[in-house]
Amino acid sequence: MRIIVVSDTHGDTQFRQVLDAYQADAIFHAGDSELDYEAKVMQGMYRIRGNNDRDVRYETELSVTLGGKTIFITHGHLYDIYNGLQRLDYRAQEVDADIVLFGHTHQLGAEKVGDILYLNPGSFTRPRGGHPATFAILDVRIDGSVKVTYRTPKGIIVHEVIFK
After folding, report:
1. How far apart are the first and last CA of the chain?
2. Pairwise CA distance, residues 14 & 140, whole Å
3. Which among 58, 61, 14 has a CA at the least distance from the CA of 38?
4. Distance of alpha carbon 10 from alpha carbon 113, whole angstroms
5. Per-residue pLDDT for the chain (164 aa), expressed as one digit of tens each?
6. Under 8 Å between Cβ of 24 and 149
7. 149 phi/psi in degrees, rounded to 5
8. Element (H, E) at 74
């Protein structure tokens, strides 16, 4: 199963063309699209509300089960993500998440804490911390491992890692 994760697109509408080229089973947007909930580029993906999204039709978090994995997505600002994963980890355990997707910091990162994989795809348009603009592709393998590939909007691989 292939999942694409993007966040912090901040009004950009071209990101969808880039993501659609990778033929994913699901696309997740971790907030701060700054687009109307009904915007064409936002259709057909799991999407949540970030601190810069004004359309209240977005949920602040979602929990979805795909391919036997429970995926929890939130923007991160409601869980004080700048100060670590602890508050987000409590919520992830409450919803029995296998994978947690979030944004807000505009910095890519992936780590496994216990049995839960936490992933921030970085920002598609406004990266911080010296990182390039990125999105993430998660390939969930039959053995349960997850290959995470970070790519730039031009398709250049920035980083790859496998979590078992």
Report:
1. 15
2. 26
3. 58
4. 29
5. 999 999 999 999 999 999 999 999 999 999 999 999 999 999 999 999 999 999 999 999 999 999 999 999 999 999 999 999 999 999 999 999 999 999 999 999 999 999 999 999 999 999 999 999 999 999 999 999 999 999 999 999 999 999 99
6. no
7. -125, 125
8. strand 69-74
